[in-house]
Amino acid sequence: MNGLILVGGRSTRMGTDKSQLAYRHQPQWRYLYELLTPYCQSVFLSCRKDQEESFEGFPRLTDTREIGPLGGLLTAFAHAPHEAWLTVACDMPFIDEETIDLLVKNRQPAQRATAFLNPETRRPEPLLAIWEPESYELIRAQFQQNNFSPLHLMQKGDVHLLPCPRPRWLQNINTPEEWATAVAK
User: Structure pTM?
Assistant: First the structure.
């Protein structure tokens, strides 16, 4: 299994690159890289072409489609189509070792993906998930239909959903106000 840290978003509401925000005295992307490394064979940063210099010296998979997380998944599977991908969005600052450990220990490789069920929305969280190689064809088919939502993929079924014991894990931070609140806690 490989790790994929989704850092390629435009961060328009935040006004600055969310992957570079510090929550634990280091940029979030670096924290996630170190967090995933013990669980994964390799860890990659899924970024845009204009971000590559920000991650110099770290393994990157550059998504040229710029269609959001689905583009990152497509790029990852094109790189290693027969391996699972543990994906983590860079704007989820409350993910910790317990989060990843629970996800990995409950992985169901016979299903398309393993993900947490958000108790607040009652939807799966596709940006903190393990995507199995069997999902690659479905991801490509959805892309060809101009549907770029990883959530829609998960809602098609054959996904192992875990109850999320800490809804805060699934919280994403999108604005300067949300960031200020998150770092104050």
Answer: 0.92
